[in-house]
Write a structure and sequence with these properties.
289 residues; Alpha-D-Glucose-1,6-Bisphosphate, Chain A, domain 4; 2 domains; 8-stranded antiparallel beta sheet; 7-stranded antiparallel beta sheet; 15 strands; 39% strand
Length: 289
């Protein structure tokens, strides 16, 4: 059987794995911070209804949320938000007996795009692999996820037609991403951006791979001087959301970077893209009168 199944709800993914560890032992690895840190990441969880959750993953992702429901030793439901502006999603950990062992099913609901669902499937597959290594082998297995995409999403209080020039023109990108030295807004066109991040001079270059008017622009993307050995891919995807727009920044292809630089690159963009989106939202927010 496949290790994961698509949920009935189109915004839901589901993935499971079996373990030799009995149900009670597996539960402790889902709920005790010192054990969670061995496979998931540095975790602070208040194990009561509406208790606070904070997780810092090795690859740079930071998760916040709350405990929605708790039924020891079989079910833990959480709200799950990977960045400050990201819409809140829901994650359920469901344990059941599997012979002398146990089986854990993870259901993640509220993922609006196929790209985000695919990224979540990859993440939870890595998570279950890390938990398996910890339970079966006693290993510290929290160092995973360096190849996962970075996804940052925000609701922007402007229509797609208003936001689009900020994504697809040099003058627009200059207002919220970086200084633009060149931006040829057509498929195959080159770009060069310069900026400072955390006190460092940064030069990013690449080419426009795809443009769909008022919907999506995709760029090959490389941080120059870092010996990446390959380009990543950045997509800005825009869609209507109520009276405004929902903008997804999806940065993938970290597996193309040389292994020695992969983790540092992903950590940098996991920190940078939420900050950049927050700046964009402030830039276009309506002014109170």
């Amino acid at each position: 059987m496949s290790p994961y199944n698509a949920g009935v709800n189109p915004s839901t993914i589901s993935i499971f794995r079996s373990f030799r560890a009995p149900l009670g032992e597996a539960w402790t690895y889902l709920t005790r911070p010192e054990l969670l840190s061995r496979w998931l990441g540095a975790t602070d969880i208040e194990l009561v209804p509406d208790g606070a959750l904070a997780i810092e993953l090795w690859n740079g992702d930071k998760i916040s949320g709350r405990v929605q429901a708790l039924a020891p030793p079989v079910r833990l439901e959480l709200t799950w938000r990977p960045a400050t502006l990201y819409p809140e999603t829901s994650v359920a950990f469901v344990l059941e007996g599997d012979g002398p062992g146990s089986r854990l099913t993870i259901r993640h609901d509220g993922l609006p795009s196929e790209a985000e669902r695919d990224a979540a499937r990859r993440m939870w597959k890595d998570v279950l692999g890390a938990l398996h290594a910890t339970l079966q082998e006693g290993a510290n297995a929290h160092e995973w996820g360096a190849e996962l995409p970075v996804a940052a999403r925000a609701i922007i209080p402007r229509s797609p037609s208003d936001v689009w020039p900020l994504l697809a023109t040099g003058a627009g990108i200059e207002k919220w991403v970086a200084h633009v030295e060149r931006f040829d807004a057509e498929p195959g066109g080159a770009f060069r951006l310069t900026s400072r991040f955390q006190g460092r001079e940064i030069v990013e270059e690449g080419r426009v791979e795809e443009i769909v008017l008022e919907s999506r622009i995709a760029l090959s993307w490389e941080w120059m001087g870092q010996s990446w050995g390959g380009s990543t891919r950045v997509e800005f995807s825009l869609e209507p959301a109520g009276a405004g727009s929902s903008l997804l920044v999806f940065h993938s292809g970290f597996d193309r970077i040389a292994p020695e630089g992969r983790v540092a690159a992903r950590r940098n963009y996991a920190a940078a893209w939420p900050e950049v989106l927050a700046y964009l939202k402030r830039l276009v927010a309506p002014v109170a009168v």
